[in-house]
Structure formats: structure tokens, C-alpha cells
Amino acid sequence: MSVKRAARFLNRIIETTIILFGIIVILALVQHGTGIFTPILREFSNRMAQAERLLDKRTMLGISSGMIVFTLASLLFPLFLRRVNKAQYRVNTLRGIISSVVFFFTQMLYSWAALKSRLHMFASMALAIIATLVIIEFLSHLISNEEEVSFRTDLLSAASSGLAAGIVIRLIQIAAAQL
């Protein structure tokens, strides 16, 4: 493990976060004092309102116990087949689960932020992406140099799939609402 590398990485993240936080505070104070960003924020809010109207339809999805049993059976069945690389299957399944977890949390965050405001929604999605990347980078620094690239690639692809799944589902919901 390379704890020193991970510590250096976290220190850089903390420094960058402090600097960005300072810039945001300064911009917020300027906005509060002068209102210089009001037209830009108003335009952003209007565009987000348009997007929100497209996404306003909500769907109800239920998962039965039969669906859970079927899913578990389909996950375990390939482990009993002769011509399946079980190690590769476990790695790919883990990637899929990571993708699902990222998808779930980003959708949960999106739903919470959508109740607040469009600005909260936009900021929360950006925060989810940044947090995911920081966590992956931190975990990558904890493992050996030989495995780091492969590990980072696996986690990034899984997280990207989860984020992309959220977008695809939203687009399908928009298309279905238009029909």
C-alpha cells in the first residue's frame, strides 16, 4: 500500500477544496453586496425550469420478492457453469454492483435536490460526480503501483456506467412522457 501517496493526494484535495470554497465565498459576498450575477443566475434558473418541466413526470416502480430471487439466481448460476472464468465474472459483477450503487445514490441525491431547487439539483449532481472521482482516486492511491491503473479503470468505468444509467433512464422517461 502507498499510504504516503494517498495522504499527498488527500492533502491536494483539501487544499483545492479550501481554495475553491474561498472563491465561492468571495463570489457570494460580491453577489450579496452588488447583485452583479443576478441576470446570469436568473437565466440559469429559467433554463433549469424548462428542463424541470420535461422531467416532471414521476413513475412508480416496484420490486417484488420474486424479482429479487430471480436476480440472485441469475447472478449465481454462471458460477456453476464449466466454461466461465469465475474470477473475471466476479470482477465484472462487482463492477455492475458498484455501477448500481453509484446510480442509486446519484438518483437519491437528484430526487432530494429536485425538491429544493434547480440550482440544488445541478450542484448536487456535480458534487456527486466530483465525490465519486475523489473516492476512486483515493482508493487507487492505496493499492500497489502495478494494480493502480487497472483498479482505477475498473472503478471509473463502473461509476461512469452508473451515472450514464441515470441519464439514460431520465431520457427514456422524457421520451415516454412525450408519447
User: How would the global form be characterised?
Assistant: flat
Task: Report mean pLDDT, rounded to a whole number.
Answer: 78
Compute the gyration radius: what is it? 21 Å
Q: How many E strands?
A: 0
Percent helix: over 70%
Counting structural domains, the number is: 2
- Strand content bin: under 5%
Kindly report how far apart the N and C termini lie: 54 Å
Looking at how many chains there are and whether they match, the oligomeric state comes to: single chain
Secondary structure tally, helices = 6
Major sheet size, sense and barrel closure:
none
Secondary structure class reads mainly alpha
Write the layout of secondary structure elements.
Blueprint: H1 3-34, H2 38-54, H3 65-76, H4 86-116, H5 118-142, H6 145-178
Give a description of the structure.
The structure is a single chain. The chain is mainly alpha-helical and 179 residues long. 84% of the residues lie in helices and 0% in strands. It has two domains: 1-37; 49-178, no CATH class.
